[in-house]
Write a structure and sequence with these properties.
Blueprint (H helix, E strand, L loop, with lengths): L4 H19 L8 H21 L9 H23 L7
Helix pairs in contact: 1-2, 1-3, 2-3
Length: 91
């Protein structure tokens, strides 16, 4: 994902953060900026965790990076909810 550039990070991070917030039911608590931040940090976290498991994250391509960002964002939101004690808002 490092080869995407800043604009790529923002777009993929925003989409991944938004999808992760929908999965974790925290979308009502987040705006677009926080979705981007969660997606980018989630991508870094997901890539780190997959590297620890021995997965080659550099050769994965765009879709692999996108799903890595979503997975890392879900883990990040889960950990934030665990630490803060907040639960997702159900509609």
């Amino acid at each position: 994902m490092l080869g995407l550039g800043i604009l790529g990070w923002i777009i993929i991070g925003g989409l991944a953060g938004w999808i992760a917030s929908k999965i974790m039911k925290t979308d009502a608590q987040q705006g677009i900026l926080l979705n981007v931040v969660v997606g980018v940090i989630g991508g870094l976290l997901g890539g780190f965790l997959l590297t620890l498991l021995g997965v080659d994250v550099e050769g994965g391509g765009l879709w692999f990076s996108f799903f890595t960002c979503i997975g890392g964002s879900v883990v990040l939101l889960f950990l934030v909810n665990l630490v803060t004690g907040r639960r997702g808002v159900s509609r």
